[in-house]
Specification:
About 35% of the residues lie in helices and about 15% in strands. It has about 120 residues and is α/β, with parallel strands linked by helices. It is built from 3 helices and 4 strands; from the N terminus they run E-H-E-H-E-H-E. A 4-stranded parallel sheet has the order 3-2-1-4, sandwiched between helices.
C-alpha cells in the first residue's frame, strides 16, 4: 500500500550530526496530516531526524507540533528507522514572547543539557 506521505528521496548522511540537539521553531504542520507536503519546520525536523539528531521542536499550535512529531516517527519507521532511536520532543511556544522563548530554551537544556543547532 502506498504511503499517503511524500516519499523522501535518498539523502547523504552526515555522521557528525548524529546525536546533535536541534531546536526548531515552527515545527507544526498546519493542515491535514495526510497531505503529501511538508511545511518548512516539519521538513527541517524530518531531515535532521534522518541524520540521527535529537529534535526539540516548538510551535504556537501544540496540536500541529504533536502531529508533526507523530508523522516523522511514522514516516521514518516506515523507512526502517528504529522508533526507539527517534528522539523528538515538542512543546508550545510563542516565539514573539520573550518569556515563552526563555522557557522553551530552558526546557530543551533541561532535557538534553545543550543546544547544538538552533533554527
Amino acid at each position: 500500500m502506498d504511503s499517503p506521505f511524500l516519499t523522501l528521496p535518498p539523502v547523504p548522511t552526515y555522521p557528525d550530526l548524529r546525536r546533535k540537539v536541534v531546536l526548531i521553531t515552527g515545527i507544526g504542520q498546519v493542515g491535514s496530516p495526510s497531505l503529501a507536503i511538508w511545511g518548512n519546520g516539519a521538513a527541517t525536523a524530518c531531515a535532521f531526524a534522518r541524520q540521527g539528531c535529537k529534535i526539540f521542536g516548538c510551535d504556537l499550535n501544540l496540536d500541529a507540533a504533536e502531529n508533526t512529531q507523530k508523522r516523522i516517527v511514522q514516516e521514518l519507521s516506515a523507512m526502517g528507522f528504529n522508533k526507539a532511536s527517534l528522539d523528538i520532543t515538542v512543546t508550545k511556544c510563542d516565539v514573539t514572547s520573550e518569556t515563552d522563548v526563555k522557557e522553551m530554551v530552558q526546557k530543551c537544556v533541561e532535557r538534553y543539557e545543550r543546544i547544538d543547532v538552533l533554527i
